[in-house]
């Protein structure tokens, strides 16, 4: 299995609810290494740009408002099969369909406020990492 990198975001609901440590603990216990990390507050424009793939979806405007509503934590996670390992830890988008023991199942309060984002494939991961981090910010 290849060593991969993936982008993880703790969304505004996760930061506001004091769940940063809980989420990072799950990543580290699963063997994912944090290669970069920062807290930031996206503008509406930045949130729009990050989620541009969803711009035709009915929930796009709400999602942009939510993602720019407060600070988030962005991380580069690294490890074997990191993209899928992170997706498995997160659980399904809709927490009601997420497996027991996943971050979203344990903490989400709605399909939108689902605590975490994770890249959905290695190519997306490279694009999303470049969106948030420059070379000086990576170890
Ligand atoms: P993810 O890769 O599991 O995060 O899911 P998607 O890329 O499909 O959706 C991006 C984000 O949009 C999700 O994590 C949710 O925060 C939000 N979202 C997705 N589907 C819905 C929906 O049906 N309604 C609302 N309000 N938000 C949604």
List key phrases describing it:
139 residues; single chain; binds guanosine-5'-diphosphate; alpha+beta; 4-stranded antiparallel sheet
What does this structure look like?
The structure is a single chain. This protein is of the alpha+beta class. The protein contains 7 helices and 4 strands. The protein has a 4-stranded antiparallel β-sheet with strand order 2-3-1-4. It is globular, with a radius of gyration of 14 Å. The protein starts with a strand and ends in a 7-residue tail after the last helix. The protein binds guanosine-5'-diphosphate. The site of guanosine-5'-diphosphate has 9 residues, from helix 4.
Number of helices: 7
* Overall morphology: globular
Order of helices and strands: EHHEHHEHHEH
Which class of secondary structure composition applies to the elements? alpha+beta
Radius of gyration computed on alpha carbons = 14 Å
| Chemical compounds bound to the protein | guanosine-5'-diphosphate
How far apart the termini lie comes to 22 Å
Note the beta-strand portion: 15-25%
* E-strand count: 4
Q: What about the largest sheet?
A: 4 strands, antiparallel
Strand order across the largest sheet: 2-3-1-4
Average pLDDT works out at: 97
Low-confidence segments, given as residue ranges, are none
Helical residue percent?
A: 25-40%
């Amino acid at each position: 299995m290849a060593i991969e990198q993936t982008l993880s975001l703790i969304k505004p609901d996760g930061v506001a609810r004091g769940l940063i440590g809980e989420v990072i603990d799950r990543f580290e216990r699963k063997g994912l290494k944090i290669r970069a990390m920062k807290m930031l507050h996206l503008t509406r424009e930045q949130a729009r740009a990050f989620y541009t793939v969803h711009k035709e979806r009915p929930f796009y405007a709400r999602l942009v408002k939510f993602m720019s509503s407060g600070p988030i934590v962005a991380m580069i996670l690294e490890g074997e099969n990191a993209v899928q390992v992170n997706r498995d830890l997160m659980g399904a988008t809709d927490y009601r369909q997420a497996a027991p023991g996943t971050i979203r199942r344990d903490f989400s309060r709605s399909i939108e406020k689902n605590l975490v984002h994770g890249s959905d494939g290695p190519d997306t991961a490279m694009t999303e990492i470049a969106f948030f981090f420059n070379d000086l910010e990576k170890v």
